């Protein structure tokens, strides 16, 4: 489905160059929900932009269903952290959600059907005539998610989408993403710097090193499929996985692509959790 092979990105400026991504390789299968976590500044946004075809990599390749990504692919939608900047203040909720559909030229009836459905699934059917500035931060992010849902993407890329909302809203939105993922069968790559979120949400968590970035570990999250904020987060397995990812992130801060051996391969302790359950 989505393949990242030997991806490298070097930003070159007049006086300096920054090697943000060194050599990233991983695969995301159709219908998977994968989280990507790493220390601040490790290149998560850079990676996501390369995957979305918004940034040209220096080396390596991203491909979707075997086709190289060299511009925004038609079946992909992206939700960014800054919902305030992705919504248009002068358009109401309905028009904001409908905007990307205009390019598809589906006809008014089909467009209305998709927008109504998207607003329904994110719980904003009653707010369709409101303007973004009349909504809370959490509701605005729901509008951004509805916009992505209405587009009927095969792949949904999310870049720290809940970083700017309060903890309670964040928990609700996490559950919304899991519900949408299960109901719509969409493939999701969710970038976060929040360790709890990285464990709670996905089926796998890819842990990145500091810049220049490599994959430190691709961890299977073997929590039950049915998750809820109260029981899942208080389960012993959640605590173990959380501790493991936390530990890896701490090590990641002292590790980058300059070191040959990935952190996960250097310690028996780090494989402890994988053999359990
Ligand atoms: N346009 C740019 N020009 C030069 N360097 C850049 C540019 N964008 C990002 N970088 C550098 O690339 C590295 C990775 O940045 P990026 O924003 O991808 O990291 P991140 O993991 O998303 O950060 P955060 O966790 O803080 O959101 C950083 O060292 C950053 O300074």
From TrEMBL:
Bias kind Basic and acidic residues: ranges: 255-277
Gene3D superfamilies recorded: P-loop containing nucleotide triphosphate hydrolases (3.40.50.300)
Name of one Pfam family that matches: ABC_tran
Name recorded for this polypeptide: NitT/TauT family transport system ATP-binding protein
MF term (GO), any: ATP hydrolysis activity
Keywords from the named record: ATP-binding, Nucleotide-binding, Transport
CDD domains on file: ABC_NrtD_SsuB_transporters (cd03293)
InterPro entries: AAA+_ATPase, ABC_transporter-like_ATP-bd, ABC_transporter-like_CS, ABC_transporter_ATP-bind, P-loop_NTPase
Domain ABC transporter as annotated: residue spans: 2-243
Chain spans, region Disordered: 251-277
Source organism, top-level taxon: Bacteria
């Amino acid at each position: 489905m989505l393949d990242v092979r030997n991806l490298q990105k070097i930003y070159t400026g007049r006086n300096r160059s920054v090697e943000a991504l060194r050599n990233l390789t991983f695969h995301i299968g159709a219908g998977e929900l994968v989280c990507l976590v790493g220390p601040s500044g490790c290149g998560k946004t850079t990676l996501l932009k390369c995957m979305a075809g918004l940034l040209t990599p220096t080396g390596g390749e991203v491909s979707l269903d075997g086709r190289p990504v060299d511009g925004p692919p038609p079946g992909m939608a992206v939700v960014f952290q800054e919902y305030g900047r992705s919504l248009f203040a002068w358009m109401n909720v309905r028009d904001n959600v409908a905007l990307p559909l205009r390019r598809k030229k589906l006809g008014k009836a089909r467009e209305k059907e998709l927008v109504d459905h998207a607003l329904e699934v994110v719980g904003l059917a009653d707010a369709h005539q409101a303007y973004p500035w009349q909504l809370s931060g959490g509701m605005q992010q729901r509008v951004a998610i509805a916009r992505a849902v209405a587009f009927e993407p095969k792949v949904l890329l999310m870049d720290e989408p809940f970083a700017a909302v309060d903890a309670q809203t964040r928990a609700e939105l996490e559950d919304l993403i899991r519900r949408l993922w299960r109901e719509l069968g969409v493939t999701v790559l969710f970038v976060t710097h929040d360790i709890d979120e990285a464990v709670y949400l996905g089926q796998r968590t890819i842990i990145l090193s500091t810049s220049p970035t490599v994959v430190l570990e691709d961890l299977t999250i073997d929590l039950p499929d049915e998750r809820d904020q109260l029981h899942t987060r208080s389960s012993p397995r959640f605590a173990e996985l959380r501790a493991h990812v936390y530990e890896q992130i701490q090590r990641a801060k002292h590790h980058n692509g300059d070191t040959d051996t990935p952190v996960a391969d250097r310690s028996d302790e780090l494989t402890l959790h994988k053999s359990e359950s």
